[in-house]
Design goal:
Gyrase A, domain 2, 3 domains, 19% helix, Alpha-Beta Plaits, 6-stranded mixed beta sheet, Elongation Factor Tu (Ef-tu), domain 3, 363 residues, alpha+beta
């Protein structure tokens, strides 16, 4: 029997009567008041998420000489201190081992934030790539993380912790003192709204959680709302839309790959690029309020051309939305598709991302 890990906030979640479920090896809150209510609160005010389950690695030493630049799909040397960058760890076949964010803490120090499920294999891959000039430390479970997301998130944090919060640029961060201890606050997130991710010691995460929730503009939100929010933005979910058999080219995420340098998987991606893609990720809207479920087939003129990887009812659009992989012939914007399985057929249309375009992300 697998023992699920828990975050330092578990007692807080049970105190709110949160519905809990396994996620990436952790027991996590899926919802409190309800997914739709929490989704709406994030779009209109400020929602607080427990994200302590995400993997955190600290890399220190002579980064440039450590040999790990080759492990990432993007350049590390051009990340300025105080900034962060999104990209991938790839395998030799160009498949996505994980998607992640790298923070430049100092000239000789990086923080890598990864998904919970593949965290152990990610760290093993990075450790294997490190040479003597640097070393890595897996701080997963020993360093806490909260996400405050929503159009009022900045106002809440400035009122609590000072005006410096307002100076943080998009995909930038500051190292601040919160509740008497060092913390890192970055302007990043996974919802499409103005938001901040707060990294702090486990010992202060409970009082910080409680202090944030004392503000009437803030309410807790679970992973159910988070999943719906990210899908409305067309953000991929590792394990559903991305995995080791999927390349960034197929996922339409080649902008996060720097081909001007050598990296693991580069030659495979160049071969795939030259040969042409056999499948591509598409986004589609359903012509009703019904939800296109993960695993549903995608059909073009009664022939199956792909499969749904993410789907939900979008409260902001008032219809079902989804993403999946199809043959290139079925991927053009405006293409009419059918989505479903035996006994279920939903009419859908291929659309551009993001689905929802009114968020406060860059406010």
């Amino acid at each position: 029997m697998v023992t699920l890990k828990t975050t330092p906030l578990m007692a807080e979640h049970t105190g709110f009567d949160a519905r809990l479920a396994p996620f990436g090896g952790w027991l996590m809150p899926i919802q409190y008041d309800g997914i739709l209510a929490e989704h709406r609160w994030c779009r209109e005010s400020a929602a607080l998420f427990d994200t302590c389950h995400m993997g955190q690695f600290l890399l220190q030493g002579e980064i440039a000489a450590a040999g790990i630049e080759r492990l990432f799909s993007f350049r590390l040397d051009t990340i300025a201190v105080g900034r962060c960058r999104y990209g991938f760890l790839l395998n030799e076949q160009g498949g996505i081992v994980d998607d992640l964010t790298v923070y430049r803490l100092a000239a000789d120090q990086l923080m890598v934030v990864v998904n919970a499920g593949p965290e152990e294999k990610d760290f093993a891959a990075i450790q294997a790539g490190l040479q003597g000039a640097a070393h890595g430390e897996d701080r997963t479970g020993r360093s806490a993380k909260l996400d405050l997301q929503g159009p009022l998130a900045r106002d809440v944090l400035v009122q609590l912790f000072g005006a410096e919060i307002a100076t943080i640029p998009f995909f930038g961060f500051r190292r601040l003192s919160l509740l008497g201890t060092d913390a890192l606050v970055s302007r990043t997130g996974y919802t499409g709204e103005l938001g901040f991710e707060i990294y702090c010691d486990n010992g202060v995460v409970v009082p910080l959680w409680r202090q944030l929730l004392e503000d009437g503009r803030v309410r807790p939100a679970g992973l159910g709302a988070r999943d719906l929010l990210r899908l409305e933005m067309g953000y991929s979910l590792y394990g559903s839309d991305l995995d080791e058999t999927t390349t960034p080219l197929e996922a339409g995420l080649e902008r996060f790959v720097d081909f001007s340098r050598d990296f693991v998987g580069r030659e495979a991606l160049l071969r795939q690029q030259a040969a042409g893609l056999q499948r591509v990720r598409v986004a589609f809207r359903v012509d009703s309020r019904r939800t296109p479920r993960h695993g549903y087939g995608i059909f073009l003129r009664c022939e199956q051309v792909g499969m749904v990887t993410s789907g939900a009812f979008s409260p902001m659009l008032g219809c079902g939305i989804g993403m999946g992989y199809v043959t290139p012939a079925a991927a053009a914007i405006g293409t009419s598709l059918q989505v479903g399985q035996e006994g279920i057929s939903l009419d859908a249309t291929v659309v551009e991302l993001p689905f929802y375009r009114e968020g406060s992300l860059r406010k």
